[in-house]
Amino acid sequence: MSKTEELHQSNCEKYGVFCEKCQYNEASYWERLKLKFHLLFCGGCRKYSKKNTHLSAAIRNAKFSNLTPEEQENFKQMLQSNFVKIRLNKK
Amino acid sequence: MPPSKENQIKPENWVDRYSDFLFNYTITRVNNREIAKDLISETFLAGLKSMKNFKGEASERTWLVSILKRKIIDYYRKINSKKGRAEVKINYKNEGDDGEWLEEQVSNHGNVSAEDALMNDELKTTIFNCLATLPEQQAKVFKMKTIDHYDTEAICNELNISASNLWVIIHRARKKMAECMEDKWL
After folding, report:
1. Are the beta carbons of B44 and A78 separated by less than 8 Å?
2. In angstroms, what separates the C-alpha of A65 from chain B's closest C-alpha?
3. Alpha-carbon distances of A65 from A41, A72, A74, B28, B62, rounded to whole Å
């Protein structure tokens, strides 16, 4: 990899992070502006930015309904106590 | 045949690894949190009891899902036998409506979204499958941030990482997720 290519890649890594922050609405004004400016010149980042937006949309569409941490903890306790019981029964 | 190394049963990991997948799988089918939780409890219990029957041919998750499927079918059998009794009592609304089929009077709401539910199911499964290909730390951070909607600060505190570290992890995770889902969904 040539030096300029390497530089380009690490640079895009930085803008990639800005792009992620945008997806979660956590980018600062300057980060958003810098990203927009970079996208004007960088086709690779433009492509990724588009894909990234689609990824966010897909996850929104999936409408996950998840267990709360407490519910997971209850499952863990239930599993553990029954695991011990089954082990004891075998012996 | 003893189970192969990668397909061994580890009940202590079940909740962390599979409970979200199983819960989402169940809730699209029974549409009720409490019932879904009960069914998953039963599945885990049945899994514990039949651990020695696990042959290591399928992955642990596939095996658990096959148990869960049976539990869901049992659940529907149970409520359907109750429903059967109720259906006998349905009356025609008016004497004059003799041309209408009874089926036409039943609202069609459940069926309209059946296809959507199927698509949604497939999408969720793809997301979970892709998530499973990520390194553990990336998967964890991505899931907390994107699916469980934790605050950046809360994740940083819990996992003891800096915010900039978190964003780099998120970036790596999302790059892989986008790649993994690209063909079909993006």
Report:
1. yes
2. 6
3. 40, 13, 17, 9, 20
Query: Other CB atoms closer than 10 Å to residue B92's CB: what's the count?
Result: 11
Residues A50, B178 contacting (CB under 8 angstroms)? no
Q: What is the pTM for the complete model shown? A: 0.74
Residues B50, B55: Cα–Cα separation, whole Å: 11
DSSP secondary structure letter of residue B161: -
Residue B154 reports pLDDT greater than 80 = yes
Q: How many CB atoms lie within 10 A of CB B11?
A: 17
Q: Which of B113, B109, B160 shows the shortest CA–CA distance to B137?
A: B160
- Of A65, A71, A70, residue with least CA distance to B26: A65
The answer to whether A24 contacts chain B (CB < 8 Å) is yes
Whole-angstrom distance, CA of residue A55 vs CA of residue B145: 14
- Residues of A with Cβ-Cβ distance to B23 under 8 angstroms: 65-67
Cβ burial of B151 (10 Å; 0-12, 13-18, 19+) is exposed
Cα–Cα distance measured from residue B123 to residue B104, given in angstroms and rounded to the nearest whole number: 32
Query: What is the C-alpha separation between B142 and B166, in angstroms, rounded?
Result: 9
Give the pLDDT means over successive 10-residue stretches in chain A (91 positions). 67 93 95 95 94 93 86 91 81 63
Contacts of A61 in chain B (CB under 8 A): 120, 123
Task: Give the whole-angstrom CA distance, residue B60 versus residue B65.
Answer: 9
Nearest CA in chain A to B14: A76
CB contact (8 A) between residue B167 and residue A72: no
How many CA atoms lie less than 13 Å away from B48 in the CB half-sphere? 24
Q: Phi and psi for B155 in degrees, rounded to 5?
A: -65, -45
ipTM: 0.82
